[in-house]
Amino acid sequence: MILTTTNSIENHNIIDYLGIVTGVAINKEAIAMGFSMSKYYNKLQVSIETVKEEAFQTLQNNAAKLNANAVVGIKIEIELTTSNYAMVSVTGTAVKVAV
C-alpha cells in the first residue's frame, strides 16, 4: 500500500476516492519522569515510534477494508497526555490508484 503526505502520487492516477481513514494508538504504560532528562527523552522517543507504527498499521487496515491501495494526504498528530501517555493519530484519504 502506498502511503503519502502529499495529495497525489507521482506517476499514478487516482481513479477513486474511497473515504477518510484513521489510525489511533496509545502506549499502554505511562512514561515515568525521572531525574535524567536524556533517559526520559530516549524512552519517550522509543515509545512514540512504537505507537506510531501501531497507528499506521491501523490506518492501513482501515484503508484495506475500503479496498484502497493507497492513502494520500496523511496528517500525523503526536500528543503526550497529562498522564504521560504517548498518543499518535494518523488520518488520510483512502484512494484507489491505477497500477
UniProtKB/TrEMBL annotation:
InterPro entries: UPF0145_dom_sf, UPF0145_YbjQ-like
Highest taxon listed in the record's lineage: Bacteria
Pfam families to which the protein is assigned, alphabetical: YbjQ_1
Family membership: Belongs to the UPF0145 family.
Record's protein name: Uncharacterized protein
Organism: Winogradskyella psychrotolerans RS-3
